[in-house]
């Protein structure tokens, strides 16, 4: 089975999607397109500490239509290193609120994207990190590099945002239960299943509204789903995760997980990216707090655009029209 490579335009996007640009309508149908200026607090990497993720005095930020703020940004490798340390330390502090973890996860995601967009930053960024966070940074860099290579050399950037609805994923504890139940049933490491779920749909945030192509949180083609479903629902996270584990077993994943993942998506770059994210979770399960809160981004000719929870386009919609109505969607400029 080769899963839908159209999903290379998701939160993990580095470059234009592979393959040709879909021949789809440009009707701008989006559920909510409003920009709200609010007074709030912005993250300060200089003030944060391992005990708390502190903030600067109130500044004016732009929020998305669902109230989520744009994440903190950086302009140098040194600022990137400071912020990375603050975010990674804070993600590992227990007992913070869901909104605090959400801000941290989105900040982590955009920070890593920023680093990868500035190759000259990578070595000074790494040199400024404490020893315990260097492996974490290197795995993030590996995953993003591999995903970039996966999509480099494809067709032009998308003119339209696909027919998607962005929804809240199941609670993180519920997802971990699904991953671990699938491991218990099949022997496939649950961290690998989490990596697939992250790359394919942002842990279930993307709900494709088209009946064509791959479907559900683990992006199965309907014909392949029939092979592994055991009567389950392709759109149900627990059923889909269990089906993915069974599929990896069928493709030899118990003996060679690289082979099993290659059967899932025929690319060594995909395999390497999944394994890098899986290793981050093995190093510290609390890495899931970041991944779980990564937002959905889609690479288009108008730029790489943020699609928050609440976005809904029942038909493919013009990326340039969406950006004109929602300028905050271009978080990286």
Salient structural properties:
333 residues, mainly alpha, two-stranded antiparallel sheet, globular, disordered N terminus
Kindly describe this structure.
This protein is mainly α and 333 residues long. It has one domain. The chain contains 12 helices and 8 strands. The chain has helices at 77-91, 98-116, 122-127, 134-151, 172-186, 190-201, 222-228, 237-250, 257-264, 268-283, 287-292, 319-325, and strands spanning 36-40, 59-63, 160-161, 164-166, 206-208, 296-300, 303-307, 317-318. The strands form 4 sheets. A two-stranded antiparallel sheet has the order 1-2. A two-stranded antiparallel ribbon has the order 3-8. The chain has a two-stranded antiparallel ribbon with strand order 4-5. A hairpin with a 2-residue loop joins strand 6 and strand 7. Helix 8 packs across helix 9. The longest helix has 19 residues, at 98-116. The two termini are 36 Å apart.
Question: How do you describe this structure in short?
Answer:
The chain is 43% helix and 9% strand. The chain is mainly α.
Largest sheet: 2 strands, antiparallel
Beta-strand fraction estimate: 5-15%
| Mean pLDDT across every amino acid position | 85
Q: Helical content, roughly?
A: 40-55%
**How would you name the oligomeric state of the polypeptide chains in this document?**
single chain
Radius of gyration, in Å, reads 19 Å
- The figure for the number of domains is 1
Total strands: the figure is 8
Cα shape: globular
Task: Give the strand line-up of the largest sheet.
Answer: 1-2
Termini separation comes to 36 Å
N-to-C series of helices and strands: EEHHHHEEHHEHHHHHEEEH
């Amino acid at each position: 089975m080769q899963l839908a490579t159209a999903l290379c335009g998701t939160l993990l996007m580095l470059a234009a999607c592979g393959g040709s640009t879909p021949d789809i309508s440009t009707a701008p149908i989006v559920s909510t397109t409003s920009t709200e200026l609010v007074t709030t607090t912005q993250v300060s990497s200089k003030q944060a500490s391992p005990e708390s993720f502190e903030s600067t005095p109130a500044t004016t930020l732009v929020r998305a239509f669902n109230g989520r703020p744009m994440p903190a940004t950086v302009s140098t490798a040194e600022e990137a290193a400071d912020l990375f340390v603050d975010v990674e330390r804070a993600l590992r502090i227990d007992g913070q609120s869901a909104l605090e973890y959400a801000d941290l996860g989105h900040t982590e995601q955009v920070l890593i994207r920023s680093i990868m967009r500035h190759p000259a930053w990578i070595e000074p960024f790494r040199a400024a990190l404490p020893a315990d966070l260097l492996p974490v940074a290197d795995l993030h860099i590996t995953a993003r590099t591999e995903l970039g290579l996966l999509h480099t050399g494809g067709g032009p950037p998308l003119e339209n945002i696909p027919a998607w609805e962005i929804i809240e994923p199941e609670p993180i504890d519920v997802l971990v239960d699904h991953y671990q139940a699938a491991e218990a049933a099949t022997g496939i490491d649950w961290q690998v299943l989490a990596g697939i779920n992250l790359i394919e749909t942002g842990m279930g945030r993307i709900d494709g509204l088209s009946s064509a192509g791959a479907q559900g949180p683990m992006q199965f083609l309907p014909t392949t789903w029939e092979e592994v479903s055991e009567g389950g629902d392709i759109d149900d996270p627990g059923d889909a995760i269990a089906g993915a584990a069974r599929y990896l077993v069928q493709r030899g994943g118990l003996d060679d997980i690289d082979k099993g993942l290659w059967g899932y998506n025929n690319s060594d770059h995909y395999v390497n990216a999944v394994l890098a994210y899986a290793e981050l979770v093995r190093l510290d399960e609390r890495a899931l707090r970041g991944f779980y809160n990564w937002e959905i981004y889609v690479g288009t000719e108008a730029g790489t655009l943020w699609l928050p929870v609440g976005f809904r386009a029942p038909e493919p919609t013009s990326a340039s029209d969406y950006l004109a109505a929602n300028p905050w969607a271009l978080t990286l400029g």
